[in-house]
Structure formats: structure tokens, C-alpha cells
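subagent[fold] <- orchestrator: predict structure for attached chain, return C-alpha cells only, no commentary.
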Amino acid sequence: MIEGSIVAIVTPMLASGEIDYPAFDRLIEWHIASHTDAIVVVGTTGESPTLSEQEHCALVRHCVEKVAKRVPVIAGTGSNSTREAIFFTRAAREYGADACLLVVPYYNKPSQEGLYQHFKIVAGSVDIPQILYNVPSRTGADLLPETVSRLADIPNIVGIKEASGNMDRCRELLSTCADRISIYGGDDATAMELMLAGGRGNISVTANLLPQQMHDLCKLALQSDAVGAAAINAPLALLHNKLFVEGNPVPVKWAMARLGLIQSGLRLPLVQLSPGFHGTLLDAMRKAGLAV
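subagent[fold] -> orchestrator:
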């Protein structure tokens, strides 16, 4: 079982928009040294929408090779095309990923039956552990708990990243599905509460900036140490929120560039963080203990 602090790692880019592989390698080593429990590569935070098919596959392969089994690698392989999702999932399995993360199909707004059939067919087509990813604010479609419960009976569907930020939804998933699949947080602001309630980990944006702290927070929450987890989480609470003042990953990449971890490259249609948010994010970074 994959559990703990799972970083949704950014894809470092040069000012030209080209992938900065040396910076990517440095981030991987930093995360492993900081006890990050697993890495999600080419997820939303990794700017998967603007990567070419070749770049997507190359990043998965590169990440798997660089990590070299030191921690699990979860490849983002979702798509709003079932055929494309199968293609990326097969590629991830071929390259040696430990699991795949499949986002709810976006834009075309399938019905619950369409969502069920989509995930069922991908799972049946590729023998690799698969984690569902529900983020209705970005996809325009919501994977409802009753559909998740149906999917939880499929052997290689092993978890769901629930990123609605709705704790009532998370509690419903825990009560109906946690005996069959792992429930992961996908919203840093509510992740501690979810883990204390029985969730198995957090797929985190904040971990891009504070990997050791997020590992420690998750470890304590998974041990049901509410006091210890809250002590770590309290100074991070503002940062959890302010990393979403504009669309992810714009704020986190700006913050990482400010710390010298990466260059500030993004790909259109994403642009640099609006100047009006610089002070807000810097204040949150300072309160979280970052030296800026």
C-alpha cells in the first residue's frame, strides 16, 4: 500500500518552456532525502495538459529510472479520451511505474455510467494498480461516491485521490469504500483531517516546498496523533490556501523559483503569477518557515 506524503511534483522548465531535466533530478533527490513517501509525475501540477505525448512518456520513464525503486512512482495517465488513457497507462506500466493516477475525464462531462465504463475499461486493459482522481473544480465532472463504490470492486483500482476539499464527501468515501481502496487527500488544506479520519495519505502541492514537514505531518496523522499533526499543520495552513490564489501550478512554481529550486518557466496558456499576489504568497511562505 502506498501511503503518507505523496508529492505532486512540478515539471521544471527553462524560460523557453523546455523541460529542465537537471532541475527535475535535483528535486527527486531532495524529495527522497526529505522522506517524501511517493512521487506523482506528470499530474496536473506537472503541467501534463501542455506536454506532448513524447514528453509525457519521457518524463515518466526518466522519473522511474532516476528514483530507482527508492520510493514508489505514480504516473499521471488520465485523459478525457479512454483510448489515450489506456495508451499512457500501458506506457507507464512498460516503463516500470508502481501505479497510475487517472483523472476524471474533463471537458466532455460524461455521465456516471460513462465514468464507470471509462475507468473499468482502462483497469481491465492494463494490469497495474490504478488510483482514481476526482477534482470537479477542474474537470467539470464529479465522480460520485456510489460510482466510486462500484469501481472499488475492480481488483487493480486501489485508491482515489479526492480533491474536492469537501470533508462530508471524504467521510462518505471512507465509510463506503475504505475497506476496499485507499482514500487519499488531494487538497492540502483538509488532508490532515482526512488522514485522522482514516485516509491513507495526501497527494500534495505543498510538499513541493516543504517535503520533510509534509512527511512528518502525514506520519503523525496516520498514527492518529492529532496534536502532533496539528502542530506541524498550523503554520502551513495559510500556505496550503495561498498556493491556489491562481491556477496550480503557477503559484507553487513561482514560490519554488523564489527559493532557487527551479527556474520560473511555464508553458502558455499559463503565465507568471500576477504581481498583486506576490506579497500574499511571500507572507504565507514566511509563516510556513521558508526563508524568503
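orchestrator: received. Logging for downstream: The longest helix spans residues 53-67. The longest strand covers residues 157-162.
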